Amino acid sequence: MRSGDTIAFDSTAFPTGAHTVIALTSPLPEIIANSIGIEGVGTTLPGVVIDGSALAAGTPGLVVRADRVSLYGLVLRRF
Fold first, then answer.
1. What is the pTM of this model?
2. For residue 47, which of 3, 27, 71, 73 is within the disulfide window of CB 3.0 to 4.6 Å?
């Protein structure tokens, strides 16, 4: 990722009407670039759930080491 990038989940790739769950099998990369946006919700998405229940105990859900990072409609659970 580069400064100013946005990660947006495409409503055509995810079912509508319910939370979309992404079950991780490895840790997420750290966010180290400034001014990043992560949009887990849009006009047809109620939200994206990042589930860490399959990861080793103590694995962080999302590590942000940058300034001006925005998260919208994103749920982190079971980390």
1. 0.77
2. 73
